[in-house]
Write a structure and sequence with these properties.
This protein is mostly helical. The chain has one domain. About 70% of the residues lie in helices and about 0% in strands. The longest helix has 27 residues.
Length: about 140
């Protein structure tokens, strides 16, 4: 039996508000930290710093859309959760296990640990229904 597509009302209102709070946290946090650096720079950035800054500004702008469309913008929160989990697993954990974490890595790990709030806010049943169980879109024109 094919499962029908879940409607947005299947996600409780409190969960939508929780998602909006996460999007607002991203917008306010990045607007207060990254935007002044981005718009107030006086010299060209090194490549990695410029890429990171542009990605963070873009993430904050997309998070503004999340305030209005919290479920439609879930992929950006999933991306945020996933890259931080990958970073923890590939960078921080091996350094920590070998006893070689430096101050910068510790500081980044602390900053990235806020992603726990994202994991709590995500409606995982909705994610499973819409990104795992739901039939994908066609790859070619219908015959």
């Amino acid at each position: 039996m094919m499962r029908t597509r879940a409607a947005p009302h299947d996600v409780p209102t409190w969960r939508l508000h929780l998602l909006r709070a996460i999007y607002a946290l991203v917008v306010v946090g990045l607007a207060s930290v990254v935007w002044p650096q981005f718009f107030g720079r006086t010299q060209p950035w090194p490549l990695a710093v410029g890429v990171k800054s542009c990605m963070l500004v873009s993430f904050s702008l997309l998070s503004v859309l999340g305030l209005r469309y919290p479920l439609q913008m879930l992929p950006i929160l999933l991306w945020e959760l996933l890259w931080k989990l990958v970073w923890f697993g590939a960078v921080a954990a091996p350094l920590w296990l070998s006893g070689r974490m430096d101050e910068g890595t510790v500081a980044t790990a602390i900053e990235c640990s806020v992603v726990v709030l994202v994991a709590i806010a995500i409606p995982w049943g909705y994610v499973a229904d819409h990104y795992v169980r739901k039939q994908g879109e066609r790859w070619s024109t219908a015959a």
